[in-house]
Write a structure and sequence with these properties.
alpha/beta; Udp-n-acetylmuramoylalanyl-d-glutamate--2,6- Diaminopimelate Ligase, Chain: A, domain 1; 10-stranded parallel sheet; 4 helices; flat
Length: 341
């Protein structure tokens, strides 16, 4: 297990140390469960009352909460960020693959950088380029002429179609498919005629993609995911979608084709987006939103009906079904008032 002294941790985090710097930290735990050798954090002052009972070897806090600590502490501007960085330092997650497995197939025309690893039963097809220290997990498929940048990691059973381009330091979780055909068809007298999807998926640096997510290749032009984007599990990104830098997308979100999402957006889970429209930079969309029109101003947007008891919901649904009739009656009343005036 990884271990670090509190003094070393303070230096790496740029934190102010209060207490015994020789204490060894080997794990992170929640405030109510942390014990010896573990560090915890307080990101909200409303929980400071719990500091007195905390048994952790150290706590990461803001300056305003330091006086409530009874033991060792690291003072940071953002304890939650400190938690994230500490978790990285103590991370014991194994590599996606180690060396080139005997059962892996690597095309003789593929170009592999230094330190590349390919797991059991993975397939690396013709013309593939893998940068330095790329890890390709067991059972992955990397299609013809695809490119993966340095330090990119694919967990088991990821599928990368032909001509996909991924930047440096990307992470893709198991079961994800990148570069599958977009949903493109023309109707010929009731019969669906497939339109070959000849664009690519182009992914920037430091992009992370959750498990069982699908990102479709462009129909003609490319589907583009910019630097620093994070995408959760089970999302659907359709053909020709463009997602701006550092946007975060929570699980089960669905994006229709040719949607353009700006930079630094935050999208709540299970949201649904219409295609062929634009969302500007700096938009936050709460969970289960239905985004049917462009968004032209930054800010927070919501839709959907909050949870009600079944009895209340049935009444609401019944009233919603009568909205058109209620609207007509209201217009009639308004007209009567206008006539009487």
């Amino acid at each position: 297990m990884a271990s670090i002294t509190l003094a070393e941790l303070a230096e790496k985090l740029g934190a102010e140390l209060h207490g015994d710097g020789s204490v060894q930290i080997s794990a992170i735990a929640g405030m109510d469960k942390a014990g010896e050798g573990q560090i915890t954090f307080l990101s909200s002052s409303k929980y400071r009352k719990h500091l007195a009972e905390c048994q952790a070897s150290a706590v990461m806090v803001k300056e305003a909460d330091l006086s409530y600590c009874t033991g060792n502490a690291l003072v940071l501007k953002d304890p939650y960020l400190g938690y994230a960085l500490t978790a990285q330092l103590l991370d014991t997650t194994p590599a996606c693959a180690v060396d080139i497995a005997p059962s892996a197939y690597v095309s003789p025309t593929a170009k592999l950088g230094n330190g590349v690893s390919v797991g059991h039963n993975a397939v690396i097809e013709d013309g593939v380029e893998l940068g330095d220290n790329v890890q390709v997990g067991a059972g992955c498929f990397v299609g013809k002429n695809a490119t993966l940048g340095a330090n990119t990691r694919l967990w088991a059973n990821v599928t990368i179609y032909h001509n996909v381009v991924m930047g440096d330091s990307c992470l893709v979780q198991s079961g994800t498919v990148i570069g599958s055909d977009g949903f493109g068809y023309a109707n010929d007298k009731g019969r669906w005629m497939k339109i070959p999807q000849v664009g690519r998926v182009v992914i920037g640096d430091r992009v992370e993609i959750g498990a069982c997510t699908t990102i479709d290749r462009g129909a003609i032009e490319d589907t583009v995911i910019a630097d620093g984007v994070i995408i959760d599990n089970q999302c659907q990104i359709a053909h020709n979608v463009s997602i701006g830098e550092n946007t975060a997308i929570a699980g089960a979100t669905t994006m229709a084709g040719s949607l353009k999402v700006g930079k630094h957006c935050i999208i709540g889970g299970a949201s649904v987006f219409n295609g062929h429209m634009e969302i500007v930079d700096g938009v936050t969309i709460t969970g289960m939103a239905m985004v049917m029109r462009p968004i032209t101003e930054p800010g927070m947007y919501s839709s959907g009906i909050p949870l009600q008891t079944n009895k209340e919901w049935r009444k609401t649904a019944a009233r919603v079904l009568k909205i058109e009739d209620m609207h007509k009656r209201l217009k009639a009343v308004e007209k009567q008032l206008e006539d009487s005036e």
